[in-house]
Amino acid sequence: MDMTADFNEQKLEVSSFIREVFSYINRFKGQLFVLKIEDSLMDNPLFPVLMRDITLLHKAGVKVLIVPGTRKSIDKQLVAWEIESKFAAGIRLTSEEALPLIEQASLGVAQRIMSHLTASGCHGIQGNWVMARSLGIIDGVDYMRTGKIERIEKDILEHLLSEDFIPILPPIGWNKLGHAYNLSSTELATELCKYLVVGKLFFIGSENGIRSEGLKTGQDTKYLESTDSGVISALDIDQAEEILKLNPNLDFAQVDYLQNAIRACKAGANRVHLISGEIQGSVLQEVFSSRGDGTMVYANQYSSIRPATVDDIPDILRIMQDYIAKGYLIPRTQESISEKLSDYVVYSIDNAIHGCGAIHAFEDGSAEVAAIAVAANYRKSGVGAAIVRHLIATGRMKGYKKLFLLTTQALDWFYPFGFRDGTLNDLPPTKRNNYNLKRNSRILILSLETK
What we know:
six-stranded mixed sheet, single chain, Carbamate kinase, alpha/beta, elongated, 2 domains, Aminopeptidase
């Protein structure tokens, strides 16, 4: 019986995942994804797999634009020619002597990426589409041939994307006289969000996200969800700013990511992802699942608990069905949910429903927490806990004296929220009169009255 139950659970998770993939394919078809790919990944055995996954995205209808990170290749080239690299505020100081070697290294990385695209049946193209000017002298430091982006040839890029090309923009810019400047690939990827309508911006390197262990959190960040690998799954730009403020000792790479993610979101990107190219399938998992293994920063509403609507009823029934089959919840129908629809809330991620719950008011100033259910592949993600916290907050806001719930299996799960064992006498009269003695549910109570 246990093996059968496990098998059914696996089937449920697979079907939920497939349903989710289809919804994301439809949602992202025609959108533009900008990918900054660190050149340090090119020697990794999984790099061809990463590039193949990117071509699969493109073949599924996603527009792709690639910005290669080139720091490792540049360092290697300069060391070979015995040219010292100097940095100020994390920015390379580019001398006249170093510039041709930096150009050569950057264009070489772009060429290798294009070769992988070609091998997978896609058409990559690289070109000089970035206008730049000298960064100049800042606080007495001469940045020489290090440049700042002045303009990006938006019309050309949009035309190439419409013709099914994958543009590759190495971080080299040119001024009106044809003089080259070394640019920051991170800045270039971020700046593209100002010129183009970008659905997602990816920073793909060896980091797989912002780790939650040891992070100081505040009012906006104390309930952030983490992946199974201990990485913060998602945060909005206000939460990202709070993390930066409270954690001044974050390493440079994570600070750089969060700062640029905030800039990109404010510039117009919907989502900014930090993922590891050293984890097989990380890009596809991040795109086609609301629970990838990287960190996402978002500007608009990504996940929320909101009042249920009529259109949500099929999803509520779908999510509840497994709980009903196991005897955890009593059966509901479309009609019974519709009658009390104003009592229901749903947990929505990118407009897909992954959890639900309800709070039913009773005549004695109490209310019942009910119908807590979470989609199979989200049960370890904190969705259920978020719904319960929301319903408790709703109860306080509406002035209920206490909350109660009936459960047969989840006693220990509810205790941390402050619920305590109760008796039939703690229930309001109408609920007490309809108590199912055969089901023999345990009664839990949470007082909302201030002492």
